[in-house]
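Quick note —
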Amino acid sequence: MDKSAQVEKYHMVPIDNLQGYDVRPGMYEINGATAIPGGVNFTIHSHNATSCELLLFHRMESEPFAIIPFPEQYKIGNVYSMIVFGLNIEDFEYAYSVDGPFDPKKGLVFDKTKYLLDPYAKAVTGQSVWGKPVALNNVYKARVVKNDFDWKDFKKASIPMEDLVIYELHVRGFTKDGSSELEENERGTFEGVRKKIPYLKELGVNAVELMPIFEFDETRDKREVDGKTLLDYWGYNPISFFAPNTSYSSKIEFNREGNELKRLIKELNENGIEVFLDVVFNHTAEGNELGPYISFKGLDNNIYYMLTPDGYYYNFSGCGNTLNCNHPIVHQMILECLRYWVVNYRVNGFRFDLATILGRNEDGSPMNKPPLLQSLAFDPILGDVKLIAEAWDAGGLYQVGSFPSWNRWSEWNGRYRDDIRNFLKGSGGAYLASNRITGSTDIYDEVYRGSNASVNFITCHDGFTLYDLFSYNYKHNDANGWNNTDGTNDNLSWNCGAEGETDDPAVLSLRYRMIRNACTVLMMSRGIPMFFAGDEFCNTAFGNNNAYCQDNIISWLDWNLLKKNKKTFDFFKRVIKFRKDHHVIRKNTKICSLGFPYISTHGKRPFENQYNTDTKFIGIMYAGRNEENEIEDEIIYVAINTYWERDTFTMPNIAYEYKWKVVIDTMDENGYIEDKNVILDGSNCIIGPRSVMVFRNVDKHLE
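Predicted structure written out below.
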């Protein structure tokens, strides 16, 4: 069928000819560029623009081969829409030129000479080779994408929130190092992560949280320090919210950008692992007044960004600008964006970077009921998607425990991180630590926030790795080139007696034990556990607690450490499995037959929990019925000793029906000793220095 016949079949009849192209008014409700039978529909909107032109480029060229103005009659309201017939999406890339008033004090900075990226672009060109700046005069262009990925009989993993164990990873850093033992073109890509699915399954995690995979410019602040090239490696500077980072693909996917990511998401879900995206809606790579025109600045600067009364940029993100999230136009874009990733990529959840910005008004003030956050909470398409907020921003707004939630939003619990770090290193804070371990109910009201509000973490991409947390008292960020002034100074870390690398066996033994302690406490805490990739085999950033610019072994996982620290990996694996096997750790079940409460806290004597500043021992007990066999009681007791000497404590009495069995003891170099069948005849127990023990109930007749 020739093109004219195809057009007639679908009743898409051209009504004008512009610059040699047959055109007609487009589909105004569909933003972006969409392939249709016989042509391509282009739709873009601007509140203040006076004219708009569509620019068509040959692949890899910087000047357009065609400039097609949108006729005035093709504009409805503030929307320009046009169907251009006879275009083959494989033959062109596109951008826009938009004209309008220039009055910076009013936030109007239109410049017709700037080539603008479609804010709804599904693929961005010129970024496919990692570390190379956008070529061709820094012009960002878009490509039309075929949405024909075959999901077959795909079914989401759909894991209940309380059952999640989240694993945060950086797509490039996860497999970029040669020690990952992948083919060179697979290293640092979506395909590289896919090849590691068997590893993730063995570890036992059931959700991966991918650090930013939206298209970003890693070369934005490219510089040389001590002979090394530093890049904006983490990716928290988005260029386009709808387009995946093409440099994370193992091969070029012309007009099918995203297929490799879709395959990764599909296979992770098929293996029982959900996929969360770390999304950055708080700012863009356009920066402040000195930053480049990429997209939003040239379309509607005073709508997309929060501006001061004299036209300057508010900077609650710490990155030069702040997205005006609760303006209806921006609100609509973010909602459409998240829907797009859920519908077209089957994403299971989102973690929102600096999410308090999403709750700020246009003047920067916090809102009681932010329209955007409420919309995301109740949107039907996002109905079964997990929503996780980083409940603070660079402007000083800290909302851990008070983030607007509608019982839908969970939060990275920064207070969990701080209070657990502080207690584990022996600096006190037993009362706070006990609250964090038992679900932070002093922060999250179960009626208004639910039992799954707290995402518990001790480490994440931002800060020390778990190994470094117990190897360094101070940050060592000299490689970043800022004279060690960047990164937080208050890490609540402890080097166990020697700063950095050491051959001292006593120090090393203590470090590994402290790692086992942290892992055990995290997995025995009520709430959703999360840890950073590589912590399970003691990956190090060599004391750098702000490795955002380090595209090298400082940030890459060194898989050789998996072999070196196999015992630590095995410990993580077994403790994760123990958490999964025992429902009472994760949620309240039916009341246990002995009448114990669902959760109780203890001192060295049962139920005596009047902790003070000198308290170094905490006991936590979970009790209920086994959900799979409601006749059986399930009782778990966690003992934590942060004192530098061993101690003695008394367990709650369960001698009516049971004995206590030791299942975890971090004093053991393997940590997990259930197979040794250690049964307590009585209720008194000795716990080693700086260690954690876990017990479970067993039949009293068990020998």
